[in-house]
Amino acid sequence: MSERFFQQQHELAKLIERYSEKDGVHTTLIPSLYLIRESIITEPISRVNEPSFCIIVQGEKDVLLGQNHFRYGPGNYIVASIDLPVTGQVMKASADAPYLALKIEFTPSQILDVLRETETRNELKKNTKRAMFVSKVEPSLLDAVVRLACLLDNPKHIPVLAPLFTKEILYWILQGPNGEALEQIALEGSNAARIRNVIEHIMNHYNEPFKIEELADIANMSVASFHRHFKEVTTMSPVQFQKQLRLQEARRLLLAESTDIANIAFSVGYESQSQFSREYSRMFGFPPREEIKRLRA
Q1: Name one Pfam family in it (predicted).
Q2: CA distances from 247 to 85, 201, 230, 262 (A)
Q3: pTM across the whole model
């Protein structure tokens, strides 16, 4: 890495600290830009990761997607090209050297806008790529990220320059070694885009039972082909994907409300409270009643 690269990382770290005085995820004047700070190693946090790009400038994080771990720190970035249920944990952070990260959310239409102006990639690829990947930060990408973040110091330029810098960031990701995994989500008719449509359906109806044949019809695939492509994109089966959504929503309700556990189980789609408790314990390590006491404490 060049000296300029480390200087830019340092500049970005100082900017993140300046606009995030306390721990947590902070919105900014740029609607799609978020700054993240944590001064301690966190508990594992389960949530749906929206399509986004995240770069760490200090500390380290571990993200679990299905059974796949993604560990990354300074010099790396992570991309999720579709909505994915994940569990994330900050693994390296302290009061003196907090975890500092920057996240940019994007949409398939933004990817498509870049692709329309990129002649090198305009045909559908047969191979289906996983919808989450970690890559090395290249100087050209870091330079665009720094310029976008620095607009927070000059907000009058945000309306004109923020969309341009965001487009440039997406361009450099697409030009990188994992760019095809991002590209495939935006190209209508690709296998990954068809799986994206199914994921949208499952997320809107996560508490309802489904038949695999119905999901395959939405994807316009055979059942066997649908199963294969869904797992290639998400690392999970459709049933596992739905189960993670249900349990994540149940955990959110347990923390936010004083509702009966049985009612929560039924509200997220479980017909059996005992089955809900077993699967909840398997995913989070504690039965619902015990974990709610532990986390609230």
Answers
A1: HTH_18
A2: 10, 17, 20, 13
A3: 0.91
